[in-house]
Write a structure and sequence with these properties.
Blueprint: H1 4-20, E1 42-45, H2 50-53, H3 57-67, E2 74-80, E3 83-88, H4 90-104, E4 117-121, H5 133-151, E5 155-162, H6 167-179, H7 189-205, H8 208-222, H9 226-250, E6 256-259, H10 260-276, E7 281-283, E8 286-290, E9 298-302, H11 310-325, E10 329-333, H12 339-352, E11 358-361, E12 366-368, E13 371-372, H13 383-401, H14 407-427, E14 435-436, H15 439-442, H16 450-464, H17 483-505, H18 509-528, H19 538-559
Parallel strand pairs: 4-5, 4-10, 5-6, 10-11, 12-14
Antiparallel strand pairs: 1-3, 2-3, 7-8, 8-9, 12-13
């Protein structure tokens, strides 16, 4: 790829292969970072080469050092044990990287990966339930993956799949009719439905007769009962209106929204075809597909009363996605507890003869200090309530810093800080890790947090308001010769690789950590090196470095779905 970091690494690989005098796969030449910058800028471990040369990696590193000449920008080469370490000319590195960022601007870091059309399905809430903070991890992750794949020049269709029918809807409507029919409706009707759903679950668990009544509501709904269908349509809109408001707050946009209700009938038809072909079978009146020979047990496709299940609809949805949108790959961002289920669904599709690239992007759930959340048990924190708490905390801090600001300005900035804190706290942790959310920690202006990054951008804004570099010809790159500046050069150079890795691993954790490292390095630079008060030759160079850091921080935060703040 056409970035300095790739050019330098490719040149090192060429030099190593030439010195080895062997036909070797380039992919086997590993380049790492030394544990200490005094040991070198880039390092080639020589362990793999022992298979070719039949001598120790230490001896290989020593021999390669004598065979590889230092070039204009490879300042020197050293061997330390089994490692061959390269020192890159600092002026060359700084000039190349800063010019690259300056020229490409907000396109810096973009990749040109193979042209594929990818569908990323994320969020996937249910109507008639409350949208709680646990749902936000899915939205934050899904939106970041959409941004990252698009930044890598891939065509992405971002979709949502909303559960607007099923047992949960039937339970909610049953309780609404049985216990709340004549109540005056509150302003937030979506939240009202969520509370009724939780009430319904608790009542049904303790009463078998109630369970039968709720099951009958679901059966009638699936058979088109006019009264219940009208009630479903009305209450469905209450939930969808609330969800649309939440997505506006979170800044999530979808190219298309699928609904379970639109794939229920196609799903039942598909199951009937599986029965006709002998791929599915009846078991105690229910319809199943036996996946025992694949070590996946049996997947239930229809209930004994003919009612649909998630699997009924997911099979139809999978086909619809590829047939309607002509996509190359389909990704499902769904929590890890559904991992086995997705393996069953993908295998069922394969047995059907529908073989397409499909991937479950799993993540662990978010918990409170009190334990895991569940809409069924009612121990959830609605997202909107949670956000208001965050905004209140951010507002307190903002007022301390800016007593002269208007309430409108405080409110606007506090909302951005609160959302940034929430999203960053959800994305800085690997997909495979459970998150125990700590609001105070997430909102800290110091440390590995969203507000710290927003504050760093705000601090740079205050510098660049006073002066920027108008002509790159005015920059004396030789003036950028400190260890702090070199550290920043390497971090800036690494941005495209960070993006490439984030796309490959389907998670934003590495990007979040990278942005924190860049912000922290710049803070050290800011505290130890004068910028605006520097001499006439040093100032343009340091301003260009500052502008480059600003550009990469803003781009990186945008990929995480986090707004920057002009002043904090």
């Amino acid at each position: 790829m056409d970035y300095t970091i790739y050019k330098i690494k490719n040149e090192i690989i060429d030099l190593v292969i030439k010195a080895l005098e062997r036909d070797i796969d380039r992919q086997q030449v590993e380049i790492t970072l030394p544990p200490d910058s005094t040991m070198g800028d880039l390092s080639v471990p020589c362990f793999y080469f022992t298979k070719l040369l039949r001598i120790s990696p230490n001896q290989i590193a020593a021999e390669l050092k004598n065979k590889i000449p230092a070039t204009g920008h490879i300042k020197s080469i050293q061997n330390i044990g089994p490692y061959l370490n390269f020192f890159i000319n600092q002026k060359y590195l700084g000039q190349k990287v800063l010019k690259e960022v300056y020229k490409k601007s907000d396109k810096y870091g973009q990749l040109k990966l193979p042209k594929e059309k990818i569908m990323i399905e994320y969020s996937g809430p249910n109507t008639h339930k409350e949208f709680h903070i646990g749902h936000v991890r899915n939205v934050a992750l899904g939106a970041s993956l959409v941004n990252l794949h698009r930044f890598a020049s891939q065509k992405v269709v971002a979709v949502n799949y909303i559960g607007d029918i099923g047992a949960h809807v039937a339970k909610c409507l049953w309780a609404l009719e049985k216990f709340h029919k004549d109540e005056e409706l509150p302003e937030n009707k979506g939240k009202y439905l969520g509370a009724i759903y939780t009430e319904a679950v608790k009542k049904i668990e303790d009463n078998e007769e109630y369970k039968k009544e709720a099951d009958e509501v679901q059966r009638k709904l699936e058979h088109g009962d006019k009264y219940l269908t009208a009630l479903w349509k009305k209450t469905r809109l209450w939930s969808l209106d609330e969800l649309n408001e939440i997505y506006k707050i979170l800044g999530s946009k979808f190219d298309h929204i699928f609904y379970e209700s639109e794939v229920e009938k196609p799903g039942k038809k598909l199951v009937a075809e599986l029965l006709e072909k002998g791929l599915a079978e009846k078991s105690e009146s229910a319809t199943i597909i036996n996946l025992e020979k694949y070590n996946l047990k049996s997947l239930l496709l229809l209930k004994s009363d003919g009612s649909s299940l998630y699997s009924t609809k997911d099979l139809a949805l999978a086909k619809l996605k590829f047939e309607k949108y002509k996509i190359d790959k389909s990704y499902y961002v769904v929590d890890s507890r559904q991992g086995f289920y997705f393996r069953q669904v993908f295998k069922t599709l394969e047995v059907m003869g529908f073989v397409r690239p499909m991937k479950h992007i799993a993540y662990e759930f978010l918990t409170l200090k009190e334990g895991a959340m569940s809409s069924r048990s009612g121990n959830i924190v609605p997202f909107e309530d949670f956000l208001e708490q965050f905004i209140a905390l951010a507002s307190e801090e903002t007022k301390k810093r800016h007593a002269d600001w208007s309430e409108e300005d405080i409110s606007s900035v506090s909302r951005k800080i609160a959302l940034g804190a929430i999203k960053f706290n959800l994305l800085k942790v690997g997909n495979n890790s459970v998150i125990v959310f700590d609001p105070q920690e997430a909102l800290s202006f110091d440390g590995f947090t969203g507000p710290y990054l927003q504050y760093t951008v705000s601090r740079i804004n205050s510098i660049l308001k006073k002066e920027t570099v108008k002509n790159i010809k005015d920059v004396h790159f030789s003036k950028l010769n400190s260890v702090l500046e070199k550290q920043i050069f390497w971090l800036l150079a690494a941005f495209p690789e960070v993006i490439e890795k984030a796309v490959a691993e389907e998670e934003a954790t590495g990007l979040a950590k990278y942005l924190f490292d860049l912000a922290r390095s710049f803070s050290s630079f800011y505290q130890n090196v004068p910028i605006l008060s520097a001499d006439e030759k040093s100032r343009p160079a340091r301003l260009l470095l500052t502008m480059s850091v600003h550009q990469v921080l803003v781009s990186g935060l945008e990929l995480l779905g986090i707004e920057t703040v002009e002043q904090m």
